[in-house]
Design brief:
By secondary structure, the chain is mainly alpha-helical. It has 2 domains: about 1-60, no CATH class; about 65-165, Four Helix Bundle (Hemerythrin (Met), subunit A), CATH 1.20.120. Helices cover about 50% and strands about 5% of the residues. The protein has helices at about 20-35, 65-85, 90-105, 110-120, 130-145, 160-165; strands spanning about 5, 10-15. Strands 1-2 form a two-stranded antiparallel sheet. It is globular and about 50 Å long. It starts with a strand and ends in an 8-residue tail after the last helix. It binds flavin-adenine dinucleotide.
């Protein structure tokens, strides 16, 4: 699905961070085609020397889409949980709660941010230890996975995935 932002001139512009790469690329191709045929366009930055690819999901040096943003953010969040203390101070607990609260208001994909805010209300963050936080985050991520049709991750493997590396030694 394509979502739109409105720019400072009041024109509608596809919201890249709310849109998966293929949909975005398809949309941008038709914009470029319309431009080349002399049609009107909302995006003056689409230029012939910046072709868009439907094959790759990440283009170095280009703005990110919803999926790349999401993947990068999960990397950050799960790694934060993996290195979170086993016995955090009250300040550390408060900091991580504040961080997620702010993330739910500032995450640059509107629908994702709203969804995160609702999830935080439904199942408030558990930050008593690294294990608690990692498991809570795993459940949160799984709720998103289910909503968007992705398989659920086995939360018993969260430390292998995000802290220790796989038991088969493939990360050594
Ligand atoms: C807070 C947040 C909210 C989001 N909300 C939406 C939304 O509402 N709609 C939408 O379309 N997209 C949303 N996204 C993006 C979406 O979750 C994915 O990041 C995106 O679809 C790319 O998926 P991916 O296949 O790269 O794997 P990702 O889901 O990004 O996962 C990255 C890696 O994490 C590991 N992993 C997967 N699940 C778990 C888990 N439960 N616990 C631990 N590790 C796990 C896997 O190894 C996986 O390769 C959101 C992202 C974030 C960070």
């Amino acid at each position: 699905m394509m979502n739109f932002d409105t720019n400072s001139n009041g024109e509608k512009k596809p919201c890249r961070t709310c849109t998966d790469f293929k949909t975005w690329a398809k949309q941008q191709k038709s914009v470029y085609r319309a431009k080349s045929e002399g049609g009107d366009s909302y995006d003056s930055q689409v230029t012939p020397n910046k072709p868009l690819s439907e094959t790759g999901r990440f283009k170095h040096g280009c703005p990110v889409d919803k999926d790349v943003l999401g993947h990068s953010t999960w990397n950050l969040l799960h790694t934060m949980a993996a290195v979170y203390p086993d016995k955090p101070t009250e300040t550390q607990k408060q900091d991580v709660k504040t961080f997620f609260g702010i993330l739910s208001r500032t995450y640059p994909c509107d629908v994702c941010a709203k969804d995160l805010a609702n999830e935080l209300k439904e199942e408030p963050i558990v930050a008593n230890s690294s294990e608690d936080l990692s498991q809570w985050l795993c459940r949160l991520h799984n709720k998103v996975n289910v909503k968007i049709g992705k398989p659920e991750f086995d939360c018993s493997k969260v430390n292998e995935r995000w802290r220790d590396g796989w038991l088969d030694g493939s990360c050594d």
